[in-house]
Amino acid sequence: MALTISPVGSAADRRAFVDLPWTLYANDPNWRPPLKDEVHALISGPKRNPWFLHGRAAFFLARRGGQVIGRISAQVCDLVQQKRPGLGQWGLFESVDEAEVAGQLIATAEAWLREQGMTQAQGPISISYWDEPGLLVEGFDTPPKVMMGHHLPYYAGHIEAAGYAGVKDLYAWSVPVRDGFPEIVNRIVAAGERNSRIRIRNVDLDRFDSEARIILEILNEAWSDNWGFVPLTDAEVEHVGKKLKPIVLPHQVLIAEYEGEPVAFIISIPDLNQLTLDLNGRLLPFGWAKLLWRLRNPQTLWFRVPLMGVRQKLQATRTASMLAFMMIEQVRRTGVSRHGAEWAEIGWILEDNGPMISIAEAIGAKITKTYRIFEREL
Question: What is the CATH number of the domain that holds 146?
C-alpha cells in the first residue's frame, strides 16, 4: 500500500499525532508515557504554548492503509534566526523502522523549511531547546527521567541516511546521593557555609511568580554564551512559572545570594515519570487527583536537576564552584532525608561545557545517556 504524508489539520489528526508513541513503544520496557495533555499543549498554538508567539510550525503524519506509522514537526523560531539566520528545525520525530517512512517524513519537514526560506536543517528539536532537544543515541537500557526524551535505537541510522551529521552531544549524568559526596566537596561546602556573604535559601511559594522571574533572569544570563542558546521570553517565563509551581518542592528549588544579591539557583524535581507511570498519559478522570496527592510528599528513588546557573560575573571563579556545590549538597540532603532519594540525574549538559562537567565529575557523577543534535544543509 502507498505511503502518504499529510499535514495535521483536524482534531483527530492531533490525537493521532499525540497517540502514536503508544503503538511504537508498546514493547519497550524503558519507555515512559508522557502526559498527553502536555503534548497537546506543546503543539496547540500560542494559547497553550507561548513559543508560538515567536515561532511557527507545521506537523505531519505518515500513513499507510489508513494506519498512522510516523510523525514529525517542522518549525522556525524567530529567536534562532537572530543568531543563525536560515536555520530551521524539525522534531517530535517518531517512525516505524522503514527507511522510506523515516526518509519521507524528514524530506517533508525539509520541504516546509525551504518554503520558509531556510537553508539549513537541525533536529530533532521538540520543539525548542527548552523542551526536549536531541536524539537518544546511548543509554537505551534505562528509563528517561522527567522532561527527557527516550527514542528507538534505529532512529539515528535513518537520520544519518537522510544526510545528517551530529553537531552537538548533550549528556545526562547520574550520581548516587544517599551516602553523600566525596570529602573534597564536603570541605568546599563547609567553607561556604561559614562564609557570611553567602546565603542559600528555599524558594518562597507565596511569591512564586517573582521568584520564578529571578530564577529565569539568572538562567537567561548564565546560559547566554552556551551553544544554541535562545532566551526565554517574558511570556515563556510566566508560562514556565505556572507549569513549575504545582511540582515545586520549595526545599528543592534554591536561590543563592551573595552579599544580598541573587546570583545563582538550582532546580531539583522528583522524577515525575515514576509518579505518573500508572496513569498511562491520562490525567482524566482521576489522574490529576492521584498526581497532586503524590506530589504532597513524593517518595521517589530519583530526582533530576534540569537547571542550574550562576551569573556571568561570577562564572570561572571559585565562588561560582562553591555556590554550585553548596546548592547541590543542600538538595541532596533534603532529597534523601525527606523523599527517600537514592539517585539524581544532572543534565542535560553540553559536551563542551567544561565547568559543569567538572562539577559533575567532582561529585562522582557518570554519563549514562547521550542525546545528539544533527544538522545538514538544505
Answer: 3.40.630.30
